[in-house]
Write a structure and sequence with these properties.
Layout: H1 11-21, E1 22-30, E2 39-49, H2 52-62, E3 65-68, E4 75-80, H3 82-93, H4 100-117, H5 124-131
Helix pairs in contact: 3-4, 4-5
Length: about 130
């Protein structure tokens, strides 16, 4: 099991785990004390679980990180930011199988990443396009 942290995971394996325990997320934060980044909008891809070695394999494969979620030992693997999340778009674009619910989530998440890149996510038009 210790070896798992140094291997790279296959695409099919990653997709299967994501469909069971993964989520796409776009976080919005307000930091009034910071002039240059008062309002921030960042995409996140995460997969929850409770085995640190297992999530280290995800970190090794995708250059992400693991973090503690709760006091019970639940952990999650996380990719945060446009540059890191763009790296997994191809994986999901080429997914040979994906259920409708997860596909719709992915399409909205990908659209939000594209809008963040061109700095239009916080415009009224950009927000509405993510909700449709």
């Amino acid at each position: 099991m210790k070896q798992l942290g140094i291997i790279k995971l296959s695409d099919d394996y990653v997709l299967g785990v994501h469909y069971g325990d993964g989520s796409f997320y776009v976080g919005l934060s307000w930091k009034p004390t910071e002039k240059s980044h008062r309002l921030r909008c960042e995409p996140e891809w995460s997969i929850s679980g409770d085995d640190e070695t297992y999530w280290k394999a995800f970190s090794n494969t995708f250059d992400g990180r693991t973090c503690l979620v709760d006091k019970k030992g639940q952990r999650k693997f996380v990719l945060v930011g446009v540059k890191k999340c763009i790296c997994v778009l191809d994986l999901f674009d080429k997914a040979p199988w994906i259920n409708k619910y997860k596909f719709e989530q992915y399409v909205r998440w990908k659209k939000s990443i594209n809008l963040i890149q061109i700095k239009n996510i916080l415009l009224n038009k950009g927000l509405k396009s993510c909700l449709i």
